[in-house]
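As noted in the main text, all predictions were made from sequence alone. Below is one such record, for Ubiquinone biosynthesis protein COQ7.
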Amino acid sequence: MQPGGVHTRSNTDAPRQLRDKVGPIGCTFGSKHDRHASPAVKNPALPEHPSNKLSRHMVRELRSDHAGETGAVYIYKGITAVALWRQDAELLAFAHQHGDTEAEHLRLLQAWLPAYRPSRLLLPWRIAGWLTGALPALFGRQAVYGTIAAVETYVDMHYQQQIEHLQVHGGPEGLLPLLLRCQADEQHHRDEAAALAGTHKPWLLRLWCSVVGSGSSFAVVLARRI
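Prediction:
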C-alpha cells in the first residue's frame, strides 16, 4: 500500500487484470476501441431507415453475415472460457481484441436487419461457435490460431462474393462500405492468426482446419435459407 491508502498491483496480477477486463465467461465483447480495427472505412454509413429496399439475394446474404458474426462472437467466448481456465494471458488478449471487432460487426449488421427475419438457427450457431473456439483452445495456442485462420479464410471469400455482387448490381447506400470494412478486419484477423500459427502444423490440426472451413461453408448455406 502506498502513502494515502492507494493499493498497487504487481506484474504477477497480469492474468487477473486481463480476466477482469475480459469479464466472465458469458461476457459480451464490444469495447469502444479496437486497436487492430481496419482504418479502411472508419465510419461506414448505417441505413437511415431499416426498411431500405434490398434485393432478395442481399437479404439472404445479410442473414448469413449476421449469423456468421453471431457465431464469431461465440468463437471468442469459447476461447475466453478455456483461456481463463488455463490462465493464458496471451490467448485472453487475442480473444478480447478479436472479439471486440466481431461484436462491432454484429452491431453494424443488425442495423440492416430489423425489417427482415434473421436466421432461425441463431442458437445452434452460438453453440457451434462456442465449441469451435473452446475445443482447439484445449489443445493450445497453435490450434486456436490455426482455427481462426481457417475460419477467416472462408469469411474473406464470402464477403468478397457479396462485394463483387454490389459493385455490379448496386445496392443501398452505405452497405458496400460496411462490407468492405468487415472484410478488411477479417483479412487482418486471418493474417495475424496465420502468422501466429506458423507453417508447420500437425496433421491433426490441418484436418481440423479443413473441417472448420467446410463447416463454415455449410453454415452459410443453411443461414441463407433458414
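Confidence is low (pLDDT under 50) at residues 2-12, 21-28, 30-42. Residues 133 and 167 are 34 Å apart (CA to CA). These features were considered when defining construct boundaries for the mutagenesis experiments described in Section 2.9.
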